[in-house]
Amino acid sequence: MSDIIVLPGLGGSGEDHWQTLWERQDPRMRRFQPASWDSPELSDWIAALDREIGRAKTPPVLVAHSLSCQFIAHWAVSAKTQILGAFLVAVPDPTGDVYLSEAPSFANPPRRKLPFPSVLIASTDDPYGPFDYAGESASAWGSELIDVGPLGHINAASGIGDWPEGRVLFERFHARLG
Predict the structure, then answer these.
(1) For residues 85 and 176, what is the distance between their CA atoms, to the nearest angstrom?
(2) Residue-wise pLDDT tens digits, 126-172
(3) What does pTM read for this prediction?
(4) Partners of 61 in the beta sheet?
(5) In this structure, how many other beta carbons lie within 10 angstroms of the beta carbon of residue 47?
(6) Which of 6, 75, 161, 170 is the most buried (most CB within 10 A)?
């Protein structure tokens, strides 16, 4: 059974976020710990993820939300550690009108195929990332794109609680990884 590392977006996924709720329900899941969730620095996040992956007994699966989707694209370019795959949820568009200005080092994520299996989950009405951008990202990264309909930014504000539909999608993806 593989380790699962949770990678929240800006702010760290609060108490009512599906990532936090999943962590509480599943002992295989743990969160990586960069120096700051609110003023993220790419180099710090890369070092934090490498440390967390280094603690895993087997190559882990990453569960990323929002800013962490772009982070994984950056990390993958120079990754020194292996992962089993990445479950990417609600990728924001760094060129959009609404973007996370607190994270300038995360802009311009690499647009190349990821060296591991991935799936990108996208909402049709995400204020941070239009569905077209999610489709372009999935294509560039070699990710399977899954349309979950109008769920906003797929976060606590979306009113999805522990997002059981997302958990089914994750378990299906995880099972395919072996």
Answers:
(1) 10
(2) 999 999 999 999 999 999 999 999 999 999 999 999 999 999 999 99
(3) 0.95
(4) 4, 85
(5) 13
(6) 75
